[in-house]
Amino acid sequence: MSSFENVTVVTKANVYFDGKVTSRTVIFTDGTKKTLGILMPGEYEFGTDLKEIMEIQSGELNVLLPGSSEWISISGEGEFTVPANSKFKLDVKTVSDYICSYISE
Amino acid sequence: MSSFENVTVVTKANVYFDGKVTSRTVIFTDGTKKTLGILMPGEYEFGTDLKEIMEIQSGELNVLLPGSSEWISISGEGEFTVPANSKFKLDVKTVSDYICSYISE
């Protein structure tokens, strides 16, 4: 069972799109941050501040990365990276479980 | 900002009712466990193994505790306790954010 050890977890959830996207913030001892999130089926556009690495742990979804016109399909496990200060779209087909890492550059 | 410090968080979500109820497991250094969860609107019945203390951090919902015929209303913040090995019902009106503590007796 994969886990993050010796971390701080913010008790209150991050809630977006009427709760169809929610996440929990996890802070590591080195000060870096990840969120553990759930995506319900739907279409969403997100903006990034920092570079983000999105690891899909389970689910089925399509991703449109910034500057791209082709959707990437993920089914089961997958990963994609979004540059800082950009926008990306998700078309989520089934409930999806993700880890998002925020990367300061 | 309230948080749990020096904890272990399981990376994969607990997913129930087609994702309308999801939670993350947090394990404390003393071995005790809590989950941080999201309830989407809907009606649910849950069963307990251990005694559970449910703290609602935000949301609007009604609770039917085991052996009771009267629904309790929670709006905003609230708390209720469910005995071990019992069933309770939730009628969730708005997206709700909870902390569930599992108590070994």
UniProtKB/TrEMBL annotation, chains A, B:
Q: Which EC number(s) does the record attach to this protein? A: 2.4.2.1, 2.4.2.2
Catalytic activity line of the entry: thymidine + phosphate = 2-deoxy-alpha-D-ribose 1-phosphate + thymine; inosine + phosphate = alpha-D-ribose 1-phosphate + hypoxanthine; adenosine + phosphate = alpha-D-ribose 1-phosphate + adenine; cytidine + phosphate = cytosine + alpha-D-ribose 1-phosphate
Q: Which UniProt keywords apply?
A: Glycosyltransferase, Transferase
Q: Which Gene3D superfamilies match?
A: Jelly Rolls
Enzyme class, spelled out: transferase
CDD domains xrefs:
cupin_PpnP-like
Function, please?
Catalyzes the phosphorolysis of diverse nucleosides, yielding D-ribose 1-phosphate and the respective free bases. Can use uridine, adenosine, guanosine, cytidine, thymidine, inosine and xanthosine as substrates. Also catalyzes the reverse reactions.
Q: Which family does it belong to?
A: Belongs to the nucleoside phosphorylase PpnP family.
Name of the protein this chain belongs to: Pyrimidine/purine nucleoside phosphorylase
Organism, by scientific name, is Paenibacillus aestuarii
Q: Mind giving the lineage of the organism this protein is from? A: Bacteria, Bacillati, Bacillota, Bacilli, Bacillales
